[in-house]
Amino acid sequence: MFALLIIIAVLVVVFLFITFHPVFGSNPSKETKTKYSSLEHYSNGTFVNQITTEMATDFRSMLPVLKEFLKGNPNRQPAQQIPIKPLQFSAQNMNQKTKVTWFGHSSLLLEIDNKRILLDPMFGKAPSPIPWFGNKRYSKELPISVEDLPQIDLVVYSHDHYDHLDYGTVKKLKSKVKRFIVPLGVSSHLVRWGVEPDNIQECNWWDEIVAAGLTLVCTPARHFSGRSLTNRNSTLWCSWVIKGQETKIYFSGDSGYGPHFKEIGEKYGPFDLTLMECGQYHKKWAAIHMMPEETVQAHLDVKGKMMIPIHWGAFTLSLHNWIDPVERAVKAANVNNVMISTPQIGETISLDDEHPRTNWWKS
């Protein structure tokens, strides 16, 4: 009897934590969901992918993965702290050149047409609602602290998962940001965290908007969403097209391989630069995360010129060796004559200059 009471008490505490802690964000209202009901990619109260996307989560399907996790892999994370390049800003940093700085995983800073855009800024220590239980960031420090960042014109999110949309980062960053651009439903999280609704713009797939003088297109991805046990796919996920005066960039967000890449390439390609997901994959969830070889094919599909592989180098979320994503992507790029750049975390590259191809992860 006493043991049963303990179990009930623990379940109640977990329920209250998930219900009331702000880290889990907030769900779209009933009125908002009613508006979504007419969308082609919204069915039975949730968003769906363009094509069938199965994620087997039953015990039989997940047992082999569980065995892999229990077996462990000593190479899933670096044996020593990885190098980063400190990032500093001054008045001279801004010019007409298009530049990109990678912060690890899928967090990037774009400087384009004298505007600064953060893509999926996740500056927390671990991609988890309880950071001390999550897989910690490989680098103890970031190239720059949130407090030292300059004014940001736009923050653009691809979806609401913890490794992309981070509660602590938003709380620290919101006073520096002029406008947040997000897929449908994600504003509910930001509003709960204190972002002014007037500073948020939501987009559906294929919406074209102008923000900070730039054209942004919310394009499809093949993924899913959710921050809690009960809100799977309650918000939309997407990729992004970002067009400046002379430069066009594609940001894949998280996505399994699919026909949407060719569709995006036909409508908006070619792209000067693609920022393409290549890590945290597994054959059991290949429908929602590309294998590195598929990453290169997706780059070709959207008609990209140069590719930077992302979604690796900061956290361990899968079972592969931590350097496998970039090494497989580089190999596939070489086979397909694709121009690929592999900057260090914190390294700023200009699209007008020679691009780094060092194997820094081996040093």
Automatic annotation (TrEMBL):
Organism: Fictibacillus arsenicus
Domain Metallo-beta-lactamase residues, every copy: 116-312
Top-level taxon of the source organism: Bacteria
Gene Ontology annotations for the cellular component aspect, listed alphabetically: cytoplasm
Designated name of the protein: Metallo-beta-lactamase domain-containing protein
Pfam family, one: Lactamase_B_2
One Gene Ontology term of the molecular function aspect: zinc ion binding
